[in-house]
Amino acid sequence: MKRVIYILFFVVIEQISFGQQLPLYSQYLYNKFLINPAVAGSDGYTSLNLTARKQWIGLSGSPQIFSFSVQTRFLKHRGDVELKNNKTVFRPANDAKVGLGATVFSYQSGLIQRTGFNVAYAYHLWLHNMTQLSFGLSFTGTYFRINEKMLNLEDQNDPALNDNLRRGIFMPDAIFGVYLLNRKYNIGFSAYQLLGGAAKIGNAAYSNYNLFRHYYLFGSYSFEPTKDIELRPSVLLMMSEQQMPYIKPLAEIGLNFVYNESFWAGLSYRTSGAIIANLGVKYSNIYIGYAFDFTLQEVQQITYGTHELNIAWKFGDSARRYRWLDRY
After folding, report:
1. Exposed e or buried b for every residue in 166-202, given b needs 16+ CB within 10 A?
2. pLDDT beyond 90 at 249
């Protein structure tokens, strides 16, 4: 029982620190689709992303997540007539306004393991000055269950042994997002867990495990002092209805340096008490990024920090930046 209490203690610390039922990502700038469905296909590339994050390495029961996502945009073509099976068929025009994306993930924090997926649809509109406005909607499904390998209970009536959670509970939900993209800047807003699902887990004290709505607001701006150098300040605000009205939004402020669109490095500060360093490199159409979170909380004394790895494959024109503005 002491082991379980120990694990749950640090899960509580995580909830107090971040107020999140959803995982945090330190490299969201390089895969914004993870926090906003409207990003799907927004840059005109077909992208495959693999993300692995392990928080507080060395501490049993610490949060960890693995996710794989894919996103794309329908190619533009003109309406024309083609011959198919000796019949004349009209193929309608496609203005390349639709993007699609999907993610599968596994997220474990303490005793609770969550495995799920989301499927996203995005619609992109052109505004003046080559600015794109995108709307996205995603359907999600999450399967909750207890990781029995971590259980060591003396009391067989403990709520953690409730049959519902041992067998697993499936909870559907939805995500909405808006994304504004320009050559110089981008701004996004998204709302997660819109349906606010609830699961019956144990006795009266545990009768409702609610999925609280989470809100993300992010933005970045690009300064280009030279042809090959880019400075990219960024900000991310996160808020959960679980926090309201007692806790301020979690904020992350950062600055990234990009050289020749092939190498990047940056630092950011998270108001929960963490400094994040990240770096990455591009080789051909493969992007590899790594981030290290150094927490300013006491838990850092007994861990090896938080590590996050992101690998992406992007397919499409890459002769110059924002080539998609010409293609679409």
Report:
1. eeebebebbbbbbbbbbeeebbbbbbbbbeebebebb
2. no
Number of structural domains, the chain? 1
Contact residues for 229 (Cβ-Cβ < 8 A; gap 6+) = 257, 258, 259
Instruction: Give residue 73's domain range.
Output: 2-327
Q: Average pLDDT of 231-248? A: 80
What CATH code is carried by the domain that includes residue 23?
Answer: 2.40.160.40
CA atoms of 323 and 309, how far apart (whole Å): 27
Q: What would the 3-class secondary structure string for the chain be?
A: CHHHHHHHHHHHHHHHHHCCCCCCCCCHHHCHHHCCHHHCCCCCCEEEEEEEEECCCCCCCCCEEEEEEEEEECCCECCEEEEECCEEEEECCECCCEEEEEEEEEEEECCEEEEEEEEEEEEEEEEHHHEEEEEEEEEEEEEEEECHHHCCCCCCCCHHHCHHHHHCEEEEEEEEEEEEECCCEEEEEEEECCCCCEECCCCHHHCCEECCCEEEEEEEECECCCCCEEEEEEEEEEEECCCCCCCCCEEEEEEEEEECCCEEEEEEEECCCEEEEEEEEEECCEEEEEEEEEECCHHHHHCCCEEEEEEEEEECCCCCCCCHHHHC
Is the link from the previous residue into 245 a cis peptide, with omega within 30 of 0? yes
pTM above 0.70, yes or no: yes
Mean of all residue pLDDT scores within the chain = 79
CA distances from 145 to 13, 33, 63, 110, 222 (A): 21, 26, 15, 11, 43
Q: What is the separation, in whole angstroms, between the first and last Cα of the chain?
A: 59
